[in-house]
Amino acid sequence: xxxxxxxxxxxxxxxxxxxxxxxxxxxxxxxxxxxxxxxxxxxxxxxxxxxxxxxxxxxxxxxxxxxxxxxxxxxxxxxxxxxxxxxxxxxxxxxxxxxxxxxxxxxxxxxxxxxxxxxxxxxxxxxxxxxxxxxxxxxxxxxxxxxxxxxxxxxxxxxxxxxxxxxxxxxxxxxxxxxxxxxxxxxxxxxxxxxxxxxxxxxxxxxxxxxxxxxxxxxxxxxxxxxxxx
Length: 230
Known about the structure:
- The protein has 230 residues and is mainly beta.
- It has one domain.
- Helix content is 14%, strand content 40%.
- Strands 1, 2, 3, 4, 5, 6, 7, 8, 9, 10, 11, 12 and 13 form a 13-stranded mixed beta sheet that branches.
- A hairpin with a 5-residue loop joins strand 1 (2-8) and strand 2.
């Protein structure tokens, strides 16, 4: 038995300390927590990376059964999938429907299907938790876009035209957690103040006093932490 601080998703993120049972690799396959087919997905030679981190790193996976698995995992952002690597070097894809939470790479992720999504056209499969709701939270959704080199006959200085490669480009969107609902983060202070939960705050003064930009992740984190302390 071990204890793990987790987010109870019946209330989106109500914090609690739960008793969880360790689960072996064999148990994962037997219980259906893992796709049984090996993941042979390959990417062409491109600049950058489709992954959160290229290498498999130690992580913890908390399943809906309240069992936890500790092992080597990797986040394939391009495919919107977490992968697990067994002792034989085989790679398998995790099934998000069975997952409550993933701790990996110094941060935490939660499957979108476990949350109450409010009018988001195309949410990511997994949200990164930037600020745990207390009561307001901040999430990030990561995607990867493929950027093709210019094909107009203009080469990058010092690089032959035919050697230019496609490259991965990071894209991130931010989401607000209010009243147990997840919504796109408003792009202006005025729209943020229009949300009923924030109407009693003088957001304009708070943003100005703390020199906050709604375009910077670190500033969004600061803003949510300030609001959670008021």
